[in-house]
Write a structure and sequence with these properties.
267 residues; alpha+beta; 6-stranded mixed β-sheet; 5-stranded antiparallel β-sheet; 11 helices; 21% strand; EC 2.7.7.66; transferase; MdcG_N; MdcG_C
Length: 267
């Protein structure tokens, strides 16, 4: 089972099938071919000169709230920003046999970790590079999705100067059971806020929970007793106390730091 935010590169045959289905259903829109079949219809957007020969654009695993198709994986393709200011969103289903490559949000950042690429074209990418310098793999790993992820995966200019930055924050198993787990989260929240001010960009951080759901880190540390949690199949409201319990760090006598954070967020 593929989790949310997973990027799937689809074989050309698979993308041609998707295009035909959309055509037969009368759902094709202008520029769909550029997104689904760039080999045939080159996208009208810039691309890094150092990009590889593969011109395809991946789909991202999505939550299907309507009719599901047995054995198929719901994905969504998106375009770069169009002249009218909007982006094309193309919902589709793919068969496992049509998947050519899989990238998790953390995988997308591997070239940055190895120093193979630089992210300096837009403020969102500059902010991403700065945050990567703060990554401590012993405590947590970072991932990225959204326009920054697609730009890194494909080389196409998906981000703009007003683009947001979407980050996935996944605590390591060691940090989950640490007495400093709450402080790790709080410190990272401070780093994000500082980066937003420095680069003048909105940064949305999703905290990956051990139960498969994800919650907004900002919402977790805001006022209120519950937080919206997004999963592979549904969206639910979770009590904040339950979220901290999921991290196996809710015993008061063992984890006083966490208890203090809980009291702060719930008061």
């Amino acid at each position: 089972m593929y989790t949310r935010h997973t990027y799937l590169f689809i074989s050309r045959e698979g993308r041609e099938r998707i295009f035909r289905e959309l055509q037969e259903q009368g759902m094709l829109q202008q520029n769909y071919e550029q997104v689904l079949l760039p080999e045939i219809c080159p996208p009208d957007v810039g691309r890094y000169a150092c990009s590889g020969p593969d011109v395809s654009i991946p789909g991202i695993v999505r939550r299907e709230e309507g009719h599901k198709r047995d054995g198929l994986i719901p994905v969504g393709f998106s375009s770069w920003q169009q002249p009218d200011g909007n982006k094309l969103r193309i919902p589709a289903f793919v068969a496992p046999s049509e998947i050519a490559a899989v990238f998790q949000p953390a995988d997308v950042l591997e070239p940055l970790r190895r120093g193979q690429v630089k992210c300096e074209r837009t403020t969102a990418l500059c902010a991403l590079s700065s945050l990567m310098e703060q990554e401590n793999r012993a405590l947590f790993s970072l991932g990225v999705w959204g326009s920054a992820a697609v730009e890194l995966l494909t080389g196409y200019f998906y981000t703009r100067e007003d683009s947001d930055l979407d980050i996935l924050f996944t605590p390591s198993p060691a940090s989950l059971n640490s007495v400093d787990a709450a402080l790790i989260l709080r410190d990272w929240m401070d780093i994000v806020i500082q980066s937003e001010h420095e680069f003048h960009v909105r940064i949305d951080v999703e905290l990956s929970l051990p139960n498969g759901y994800g919650v907004s880190l900002k919402e977790l540390f805001s006022h209120g007793h519950t937080v919206l949690a997004k999963g592979p199949a549904d969206v639910v409201l979770l009590p904040k106390k339950e979220i901290f319990t999921l991290f196996d760090v809710a015993e008061n006598e063992k984890h006083p730091n966490l208890v203090n954070v809980i009291k702060t967020t719930l008061n």
